[in-house]
Design a protein that fits this description.
Strand order of the largest sheet: 3-6-1-9-10-2-11
CATH topology of the largest domain: Alkaline Phosphatase, subunit A
Order of helices and strands: HHEEHHEHEEHHHHEHHEEEEEH
Number of domains: 2
Distance between the termini: 65 Å
Structural class: alpha/beta
Low-confidence stretches: 1-5, 10-56
Mean pLDDT: 80
CATH class of the largest domain: Alpha Beta
Number of helices: 12
Radius of gyration: 23 Å
């Protein structure tokens, strides 16, 4: 831990930066207090609230995407039959245990069809057009970030943006457009793509700080440290404000917004301090084995959700144009080149094995959510999960008839067990409008939407 003299020197240096009008990272002064503290939100733990004379918290609706890259072997994906009378295809078979909490959507089209860049670039933004060059980075606020704004005051983290590949924020990828389009789904603003995090250690530290584990004693020590440093910072800011001019006052006031945010997060942590978490040690980094890496990421997501640290997560099991091979399922081919199969049956079948493997892994994640108690059921009961890809037939980079699933109970807002087909080929943005409404954030429009997408059964049908 830095010495008191060292901390004082650092504080003075940062104050000089403020007064000089230089850019100051929002949390630089508060280094050591910015780490979030993980505190769970489990139905099995609710007696702890009762001991303090509090009532159990109400049902909480959470949202997540599970994005799969490089399109789909549609012949092995598309179900036969409609409504409740539909058969599961080879790719969807691993999801049979969750059939009653599954909506299969057919006929929805992508809003921006620009090979791989448009696939992920418009998946949550619904934009009809993005940048045209490597350096022109344009989209719009993504659905997850609109939800993050809504839930930000309720959780310690507004959202998590996670992936299985390292993020690339520069350079050209698909169609010589910026790599940001293929490496993230999340956009805070039209020119603000959010990088994804693939390192489990970094995710752990964002959730729990550098405590080393989720043990209660470590979290309590971190909380005490946060509160102590925060009190010191607040006193110094107060003293400084009495000695500076009007313009500098504005700068300091803007900076104190960060302090208030930390205060809110500490207060949230204190409200839940009686509750324990499963003990998980801080990961060393990204494991070299894909499945080990994925399992760590899944476990961290579940901890974040059950602790109510965040209610919004985006996850990419692979970036668009991912070359990852899958020798463990006898597919040694690089994924992206294999996706350009020219509709050759033997190559399409091999591609379908990757697609099925992804749903098998997704099914394992759903099982963990189903086994985690939550208010009025399980985490899966209280989640809306959007699974799919921004490309259908990958050899043509087709944006028609996207492979899409909506999974979970939606906190009572979703009626699953159905295959829905849309003959009028509505845009993906229409689906996003509907999902936001179900998550308590009604919007008139989003991206290139032309209305809402009907998901609920019609009366009398």
């Amino acid at each position: 831990m830095p010495s008191e003299a060292g901390s004082e020197h650092t504080w003075r240096r940062h104050m000089l930066r403020i007064l000089a009008g230089k850019t100051l990272p929002r949390r630089t002064l508060l280094k050591g207090v910015g780490a979030t503290l993980a505190l769970p939100f489990l139905d099995a733990m609710f007696p702890a609230f009762g001991l303090r004379g509090q009532s159990a918290p109400g049902r909480v609706h959470r949202f997540q995407t599970f994005y799969v890259p490089n399109g789909m072997a549609m012949e092995y994906w598309s179900p036969t039959g409609e409504g409740r009378d539909f058969g599961l295809t080879p790719i969807l078979e691993p999801l049979e245990p969750f059939r009653e909490q599954m909506l299969v959507l057919s006929g929805v089209r992508a809003n921006w069809v620009q090979i791989h860049a448009g696939a992920s670039g418009s998946f949550l933004t619904g934009i009809p057009q993005g940048g045209r060059t490597e350096t022109e980075i344009i989209a719009d606020v993504s659905m997850d970030q609109l939800l993050a704004r809504k839930f930000a005051q309720e959780t310690q983290l507004a959202s998590l943006e996670l992936a299985m590949d390292a993020s690339a924020n520069a350079g050209a990828c698909s169609s010589n457009l910026s790599c940001v389009y293929t490496h993230t789904l999340s956009w805070r603003g039209p020119t603000q793509p959010l990088p994804t995090e693939y390192n489990p250690r970094a995710v752990f530290e964002r959730l729990f700080g550098d405590t080393g584990s989720t043990e209660r004693a470590a979290r309590e020590a971190r909380l005490r440290q946060q509160a102590s440093i925060l009190d010191s910072v607040t006193d110094k800011i107060g003293a400084l404000s009495r000695e500076i001019g009007a313009q500098d006052q504005i700068k300091v006031e803007q900076y104190t917004e960060a302090i208030r945010d930390v205060e809110r997060r500490i207060q949230k942590a204190e409200e839940q301090i009686d509750i324990e978490l499963p003990n998980i040690e801080q990961p060393e980094g990204a494991p070299p084995v894909f499945e080990d890496h994925l399992e760590l990421m899944m476990d961290l997501k579940i901890l974040a959700l059950q602790a109510d640290l965040t209610r919004v997560i985006t996850f990419m099991i692979g970036k668009e144009q991912s070359p990852r091979p899958y020798p463990q399922i006898d597919v040694p081919d690089a994924h992206h080149p294999l996706s350009h199969h020219n509709n050759q049956p033997e190559l399409v079948e091999r591609m379908s094995r990757i697609n099925r493997y992804h749903t098998e892994l997704f099914s394992q994640y759903l099982a963990k959510l189903r086994d985690t108690p939550d208010v009025d059921g399980t985490l899966l009961d209280n989640m809306t999960i959007l699974y799919g890809s921004g490309i259908s037939n990958s050899t043509r980079h087709s944006g028609q008839n996207l492979p899409l699933l909506v999974m979970g109970g939606g906190a009572g807002t979703l009626n699953g067990g159905r295959h829905l087909t849309y003959a009028d080929e509505p845009g993906m943005a229409n689906l996003l409008v509907t999902l936001m409404d179900k998550l308590g954030l009604p919007v008139d429009a989003h991206g290139a939407s032309t209305g809402a997408l009907q998901l609920d059964p019609l009366p009398g049908i």
